[in-house]
Specification:
about 210 residues; alpha/beta; five-stranded parallel sheet; 7 helices
Length: about 210
């Protein structure tokens, strides 16, 4: 068994990514990160020997479109508090299969705090192009996104695969959005479990697997 470290990001539901923590894995260090947690994981990978990276809806750069979305979320927070932020976030973070689910929305909403949301907004507002950190590790990399991710569209994941030095795979799951680990939990866990053990994964040309 290897060691799995989790980087859930600031907007994860209360339980974070704990459902990955007990998965079987090859010997070595494995990092599993969601959203902006990808940057923290890559900084660890830069300084330590890492066997694999799992990046879920990774955020590693800011462009004008993402800037506009972050500005809309800040506006929602300033005008309507956490409820205002959550209302705008519901349109950005959920895919068509879960956007109407009160259970998933409530689970996510309960994990929000004003301190955490403000820290998240500040982090994204100050984000530069952090894809360079991918050049600091040769760990094999798995990127999983929702095919309907409005906040960080699948192009972001493709860029991660393109920058990765080691073997890299990308999956875009139909019906899911930015919160893909919780929207399509069973499918995501199955993909990550196979990846951490090194089984059943061979990269296709261009690093894309669908």
């Amino acid at each position: 068994m290897g060691e799995i470290r989790l980087f859930p990001g600031l907007l994860s539901p209360p339980a974070g990514l704990e459902f990955f923590s007990h998965l079987p894995s090859e010997e070595g260090l494995h990092l599993v990160a969601f959203a902006e947690g990808a940057l923290s994981a890559l900084k660890v990978a830069f300084g330590e020997e890492v066997r694999s990276l799992v990046l879920l809806s990774p955020i590693l750069r800011k462009d004008p479109l993402l800037t506009a979305k972050v500005a809309a979320l800040r506006f929602g927070l300033e005008k309507g508090g956490l409820e205002g932020f959550a209302r705008v976030g519901r349109a950005f973070f959920f895919g068509p299969q879960s956007v109407g689910s009160e259970e998933i929305f409530t689970l996510w909403r309960e994990g929000l705090s004003e301190e955490g949301v403000r820290a998240w907004l500040a982090l994204l507002e100050g984000l530069s192009d952090e894809r360079r950190w991918l050049r600091g590790t040769e760990a094999r990399t798995l990127v999983i996104q929702g095919a309907w991710d409005v906040f960080t569209p699948p192009q972001y994941g493709k860029e991660v695969v393109d920058f990765a030095k080691g073997e890299a795979l990308r999956f875009a799951l139909e019906g899911a959005g930015h919160l893909v680990p919780w929207e399509a939990r069973e499918e995501v866990v199955d993909l990550v479990a196979d990846f951490l053990t090194g089984e059943a994964f061979r990269p296709l040309p261009g690093g894309l697997a669908l």
